[in-house]
Specification:
single chain; about 425 residues; 12 helices; about 35% helix
Length: about 425
């Protein structure tokens, strides 16, 4: 099958979030950096930029507490540390996520227990979580994959019934909402990333938000060696790291936050354009998002996708996502078949329990059921990975870029069915 763009036709250059072509970085960030450097104060404990960023971020989400840290992984780590698992406790998470959202569980001596995902969205569900809850479950981490909010209503009902806190992994979900509630404010704790490719970036960086004062204090302490700044008799209260954001990151973050509304709006606008162009294709599928959930109590568009990336599903009978990726490449369009090549539990660190020396700790404390990775337990995850194609997305996409993507995908779809008919 060959749907390549005809020779002689000039292809649009696709913006990339890995460089300036796809990032809103400019004079505002430079001005803040110059001011920070001239001040000579580059630590956030003494400077002002990170503090201002924290306050503004919290105000944006309407939360009581926000705490900046060095990375999205540090944000998850602080959240896990805040719920304070004991060795061998279990934290439920997704097998389709970045390892940076899983290893903090291990470092805090808990067992990552994987819930299956919906085969269309790649998100965990209340049903899949319920199958792996146990008396040892200490928390549930819900990843809003690619910016598409998970079905938080049923998940929160389940969690509340069992008295289990929910940590929202919002690294990819800036601007997303579920039934009018901002993603990151529904669970007990919300975690965000400011890594290079996220909606806003400081290269690396993270944020943790909560409306729970006790959890918020533990988050703040964990980020800063558990030293009780401002306490009458401060001490190092428990084992914790230095995961602070520095003033240079804070200076960039403060400028980036002003640009976030435009970034979200442009991503959503361009995604809607591509949605419209691809509807009606016979094989390639646009996964159902929660904005189309159809729930009786869900008003039109009350659930909003933040569009970190744009996703299509390509059935195996069409060659799967790899076949479409090859065709898009001929048009100068990058894409990532499968997102991750295998579920997280197949990675060596978890598969072989490579942790601290040869101890296998904390996996040596795990119940057999907690580390049962039999394929039949993860039918949704394997099906999703076999079909999903991830298309890069950023705030500098314009109509010409979206229309080029749509043309390539539509040609691939049509060519498949033409071949099938011959």
């Amino acid at each position: 099958m060959n749907t390549a763009t005809p020779a002689g036709i000039e292809l649009p250059s696709m913006p990339s979030d890995q460089n300036a072509s796809g990032r809103l970085l400019g004079d505002e960030e430079i001005a803040n950096l110059i001011e920070a450097i001239k001040s000579g104060t580059l630590t956030s404990t003494k400077g002002t930029f990170t503090k201002r960023f924290i306050a503004k971020f919290g105000e944006m989400l309407g939360v009581e507490e926000a705490h900046a840290c060095a990375s999205g992984t540090a944000a998850i780590h602080a959240a896990v540390a805040a719920v304070d698992p004991a060795p061998g406790d279990e934290i439920i998470t997704s097998p389709i996520t970045d390892m940076g959202a899983i290893t903090p569980i291990i470092y805090q001596t808990a067992i990552p227990v994987f819930a299956d995902v919906d085969a269309k969205t790649g998100n965990v569900t209340a049903e899949s979580i319920s199958r792996v809850i146990s008396p040892k479950t200490k928390a549930i981490i819900v990843t809003h994959l690619f910016g598409n909010p998970a079905e938080m209503g049923p998940i929160m009902e389940l969690a509340d019934r069992h008295g289990i806190p929910v940590i929202e992994d919002c690294a990819q979900a800036y601007g997303a909402s579920y039934k009018g509630q901002k993603i990151g404010t529904i669970g007990a704790i919300g975690c965000f990333s400011l890594q290079q490719g996220k909606h806003i970036t400081t290269g690396e960086g993270g944020m943790v938000v909560t409306n729970d004062a006790e959890l918020g204090r533990r988050v703040r302490l964990f980020i800063d060696k558990a030293w009780g700044y401002g306490d009458p008799k401060p001490d190092h209260y428990f084992a914790a790291l230095n995961a602070r954001m520095c003033e240079l990151q804070g200076a960039v973050a403060l400028a980036q936050l002003d640009k976030l509304p435009h970034s979200i709006s442009q991503r959503q606008k361009m995604a809607a354009r591509l949605d419209h162009a691809l509807r009606g294709l016979r094989g390639v599928e646009i996964p159902m998002t929660n904005s189309e959930c159809g729930s009786a109590d869900c008003e039109a568009n009350c659930c909003v996708n933040g569009y970190w990336k744009y996703i299509v599903l390509v059935p195996e009978e069409m060659g799967g996502p790899g076949a479409l990726a090859e065709e898009l490449k001929t048009g100068g369009i990058a894409s990532a078949p499968r997102y991750i090549q295998k579920p997280a539990f197949e990675c060596q660190v978890i598969r072989d329990q490579v942790t601290f020396g040869g101890s296998r700790f904390p996996f040596n404390l795990a119940r057999p059921e907690a580390v049962d990775y039999a394929p039949e337990n993860f039918e949704g995850a394997y099906k999703y990975l076999s079909q999903v194609l991830v298309i890069p997305w950023n705030e500098n996409y314009e109509n010409v870029h979206v229309d080029h993507i749509a043309t390539q995908i539509a040609a691939f779809d049509a060519a498949h069915f033409q071949e099938a008919a011959e």
